[in-house]
Amino acid sequence: MDSSLLFPIVILTSILFLYYYNRYEIAFPELTDKVVYIENVSVHEKIEFAKCRVEIWNNKTTWEIPRIETLKLLAKPGVTQSATTEGLSDGQLRLVSAFLYEDEIVVTTTRQRPAQTGTPVYCRYFDCNRVEIPGSIYKSFFMPLTSVHCLRKSGASFISLSLSDDKPQSPIPLTHRLFKQPPNELGVCAGQIYGLDKKWMQIAEFVEHHKLIGATMFYFSVFEIDGMTRMLLDEYERSGFAEVSIINTEYTGTAAMLRHMVQIHECFYRARQHSKWLLNIDHDEFLMPREKPILTYIRSLGDHVAELVFTMRRIAKFRDSIEVYHNIKEVSSDIQAVNYNLTHSPSYQSPKVMIRPDKVNMMIVHWSYGMEPGYKVHAVPANIATLNHYRTISPKFLWSDFVAKLIKQDVKFMHFTLQKEYLKRLRENVAQVVGYVFEKHDVTCENIPEPIQKYTRPYLKKMKICE
Ligand SMILES: *[C@@H]1O[C@H](CO)[C@@H](O)[C@H](O)[C@H]1NC(C)=O
Ligand SMILES: *[C@@H]1O[C@H](CO)[C@@H](O)[C@H](O)[C@H]1NC(C)=O
Ligand SMILES: *[C@@H]1O[C@H](CO)[C@@H](O)[C@H](O)[C@H]1NC(C)=O
Asked: Is the pLDDT of residue 308 over 70?
């Protein structure tokens, strides 16, 4: 290092040190003689909790995992492992969620070890005081990949897992999925949220678009998130349109693709018994029905379909979405559906699917496994609906050179039009939610009642709110 820099650095460090030292270490030696101790806190070694009351819905024990034969088959080496080899091979066992269904509990984890699908893991049950229920250990196995099916135990309020009969992970609460009928007809997996670039604008358009076509629930999995996007997700949770899973792995960085299965299994089990249909896409993909509303179409197919396959087309996006909120006008003019319409013919290559989470036994990125007998896959023709996948032409994204590649392959590009009425509603709804979350104004002296101004004058002056 340039030695002429050293001196200023030493001075600066000393100033900072003195600043913080003074800030945190103010002493009043004149008080030492005067202070007397008047009480002691007593922390006992063991707390006597009140006895647990077992609610009627929790007074149930089961003896067999539903569809165990199908799960065992799918867990066999080579059956589904190759579909999930994207996973990291040494992931720690960390618990994400536990879903309580009528006849079983499924625990989702971050342990993605493709080669170990089907290997043993132990379900551990805890009462309302987080005390392990004696004699309750149940030996299960990983299937699919990161998830574990456990029996129900009467009185269990928390659950955990362990790889042997040693100390389990700290237990987590059960998320209720005891519905006679799923409360949502259409739910949407919104991909993984990771990296610190601000995605609130894209996510607002994603949610508001799918609300317009009939979705009522959005499942987000958050690995890393910026504060603004988190505020938007909080707003969707507050209004009952979203559930957010927070996933904390031991890895640094954003090797996003390599955690995709953690998010997908989490979304699949979160949606089971909660959404009748589950659209498994990312937040840059938009299902676009033509003419007929998508729910009308799905209902018209009858009750024997458990997977719908959609065609996909990419839309070239020529600049990044806005990341900083300035005003609603700017938000209204940044709607992707309005700004970009360059695309190619839709195709079933790398399709995305909508599934019945209660009728299939595993979901991966592009299809499902282990469909219940009597159910079928249905390919949705492009003239009914297709997926619009917005892809930014920017070297910072994976596969962003698709336009150049497709031109080389002689693929024809085209423009499409969207209904004016749809675009108007989309723009209004995005502006409404984004405005609610981010449109703020400063506190001024006039906002503060006179008596409070009097009382807090030095503080208000320091904050430059009042003179
Ligand atoms: C608090 O605990 C200390 C150390 O055990 C003891 O010396 C002191 O008398 C106690 N004070 C009171 C108020 O009980
Ligand atoms: C639980 O159910 C059993 C019958 O299955 C019943 O005998 C018992 O009283 C119930 N316990 C509670 C706490 O409701
Ligand atoms: C497609 O978008 C361009 C601007 O990018 C616009 O000029 C054109 O009118 C649009 N075409 C259709 C068919 O909407």
From this structure: yes
| Rounded distance from Cα 24 to ligand 1 centre (Å) | 27
Cis check for the bond before 182: say yes or no (omega within 30 of 0). Answer: no
Question: Which one is the CATH code of 184-438: 3.30.70, 2.40.230, 3.90.550, 3.20.20?
Answer: 3.90.550
pLDDT computed for residue 47 by the predictor: 83
Question: 278 vs 2, 38, 65, 465, CA distance in Å?
Answer: 60, 61, 23, 50
**For 261-294, how does the pLDDT look when each residue is reduced to its tens digit (9 = 90+)?**
999 999 999 999 999 999 999 999 999 999 899 9
Ligand nearest to the CA of 154: 2
Q: Please name the CATH architecture into which domain 56-176 falls.
A: Sandwich (2.60)
Expressed in angstroms and rounded, the spacing between residue 59 Cα and the centre of ligand 2 is 6
Rounded to an integer, what distance in angstroms lies between the CA atom of residue 448 and that of residue 191? 44
Alpha-carbon distance of 228 to 201, in angstroms, equals 10
Mutate to test the pocket of ligand 1, among 35, 37, 42, 43 (most ligand atoms within 8 A of CB): 37
Domain with CATH 3.90.550 in the chain: 184-438
What separation in Å is there between the alpha carbon of 40 and the centre of ligand 1?
A: 6
Sorted by sequence, the CB contacts under 8 Å of residue 237 that are 6+ apart come out as: 243, 244
Asked whether 417 lines ligand 3 (CB < 6 A), one says yes
pLDDT greater than 60 at residue 16? no
Task: Return the percentage of the chain with pLDDT > 70, whole number.
Answer: 92
Task: Check whether 11 has a pLDDT greater than 70.
Answer: no
pLDDT of amino acid 221: 97
Roughly how many angstroms between the first and final C-alpha of the chain, as a whole number?
48
User: Residue range 52-63: average pLDDT?
Assistant: 96
SS3 414: strand
Q: Is the CB of 393 under 6 A from ligand 2?
A: no
Q: Which of 40, 41, 42 to mutate to test the pocket of ligand 1 (most atoms within 8 A of CB)?
A: 40
For CATH 2.60.40, the residue range(s) in the chain are 56-176
For residue 415, how far is its CA from the centre of ligand 3 (angstroms)? 7
| Residues 189-233 pLDDT 10s | 999 999 888 999 999 999 999 999 999 999 999 999 999 999 999
Nearest ligand to the CA of 60 is 2
